[in-house]
Amino acid sequence: MIVAGELAPGSRLPKEEILAGQLGLSRNSLREAVRALTAMRILITRQGDGTYVSSLEPHLLLESLSFAADVSQGHTALQLLQVRRLLEPQATGLAAALLKPQDLRELRNILERSRTVATVEEFVAHDIAFHLRIVEAVGNPVLSMLLQVLSTRTQRVRIVRGSQTSHALNNAHEDHEQILSALQSRDALLAAAAATVHITAVEQWLATSLTDDPIRAIDD
Question: What is the pTM of this model?
Answer without folding.
Answer: 0.69
